[in-house]
Structure formats: structure tokens, C-alpha cells
Write a structure and sequence with these properties.
Type II secretion is composed of four main components: the outer membrane complex, the inner membrane complex, the cytoplasmic secretion ATPase and the periplasm-spanning pseudopilus. Belongs to the GSP I family. It is found in: Cell inner membrane. By secondary structure, this protein is an alpha+beta fold. The termini are far apart. The radius of gyration is 32 Å and the shape is rod-shaped. The chain has a single domain, classed as GSPII I/J protein-like (Pantoate--beta-alanine Ligase, Chain: A,domain 2, 2-Layer Sandwich), CATH 3.30.1300. It has a four-stranded antiparallel beta sheet with strand order 1-2-3-4, covered by helices on one side. The protein is 49% helix and 27% strand. The protein is built from two helices and four strands.
Length: 127
Amino acid sequence: MNDKNSFQARRTQRGFTLIEVMVALVIAALALTALTRGLGQYVFQQSQLQERVIATWVAENRLLELQRLPGAQMENRAQETALSQDWQTEFTTSDTLIDGIQKVEVAVTAPAEKQPTVRLYSILGGG
């Protein structure tokens, strides 16, 4: 009779119950959901950073053009291509308190965006 009780005890203690398995699956699903959301945010932030870096390069190139060709007639708005993307650039100049020195602002807008992705400021003139 002792053997029968020990067999029954071993038989009831084997494996996981359905509730334990379901709880484990819920925990795993929640963890995977959080991981997926975190990875999605990381990818989004990286793409935003890449966009800002490229826009900064485009703005710096435009500033260099303005500095290398002082007094040249240049279009205030232009479209530039960088890394297979078309970027809208716009520059404005304004006088400063110092004669011959102008403040210049270059705004670069990413494709399909309305607001500038980046704005750079510099000075022109002074020869």
C-alpha cells in the first residue's frame, strides 16, 4: 500500500498545470510586446538622427557655396540631392550692426516634410 501512495504522489507532482503554462505565456507575450515597442522606438530615433545628420550636411554645403561665392546671385530656394534624397534648401540674409557683415540662415527641409529639419546660421562678408 505504501508503494501505491508513493506512485500517486509522484504522478500528481509531474509537469506544469495548465494555469502555470498560461501565466508563463502571458508573461512571455508581455515581455515580447515591450521588447518590440522598444526596438521600434530605437529604429525610429535612429532614422530621425540620420535625417538630421544628412540635413546638416546639406545645410553646411549650402553655406559653403554662399561663402565661396560672395556677392553672386543665387536662388534663395533650391533643391539638392544627398544620399538619393531630394532636400529643399532656403537661405535668408539680414544685415548686422557691422557694415559688410551679413547674417545668413539656411533651412533644410526633408522630403515630404513641411517644417525644416535643420537650420544653420552663419555670417558672410568681412572679406
